[in-house]
Design a protein that fits this description.
alpha/beta, Rossmann fold, 11 helices, Hydrolase/acyltransferase, AB_hydrolase_sf
Length: about 300
Amino acid sequence: MKLNYILCATQEGFHKVTYSEWGQPKEDLSAVICVHGLTRNRCDFEPLAQFLSDKGRQILCPDIVGRGDSSWFKNPKYYNYQQYIADMSTLIARTSAQKIDWIGTSMGGLIGMALAALPNSPIRSLVLNDIGPQIPVQALWRLGQYVGKHPLFKSEEEAKEYFKTIYGSFGILTEEQWSYLTHHSIKEITPGTFTAKIDPHIKGSKSSGQLVKEFFVNPHRALEGILFDVDLWYLWQKVTCPVLVIRGKNSDMLLPEHIKRMQRGHPNVEVIEIENAGHAPILFESREHEKIAHWLNSVESKYF
């Protein structure tokens, strides 16, 4: 694994987007880009990246700006999907691959959906981990209870207990897995004081009421002020690549009726349901890695 970064731009100037890279480019294979959820970072995908790289794939796992080891903005208005899409387009350009297999959890899936919906998109296939084109308002309210509100911790153990409370829906994790997640989610800011590796300004404020527009221009307003489901079906209608939908069986973010509607409007949608998980499955288990790898291989042989 190599750690690298790209420079991307806003009116503030350039900012750094850190990413880990696994494996080597292959002329005959798509590169795989794995993008984390709203409050998470690239390390969530390290177990899957290691597995896929062992199968000969090149994988890139970025920290979206404001998370992990990437830069923070001075003005939080730049934390929006338009910026994330521009940054990830720069990452795609950095690869030597002509086609991309995109794996995205929650926010990462929405970025992938937006990229896949564009004309002449390099996205060859799309894995959506517990996210779809309709986002229930109740799920956004739940996220709004903790986004931007990470406390300070006196130890990794204290942080781990906190993450167990807000991320319990990720699935049944071992103590070792919780320790891994915690270790890669915090940083020591002074001796004996830790905080989450996310800009606290990524948080909700009151919604303007322009629901879909606001969600993409300032998505974090949705978390406290939104009154209705976010409707992104117009994007979904433009996605033509094969799609694998992963759903936590107990998810409040991706509902069964939404998946059925996705399948009615798209001929190449397959679904995997993860037991004992809500939003969003953390995808740490080898059996989950096997299913994803099998689907990627089937896409390769069936469609290309």
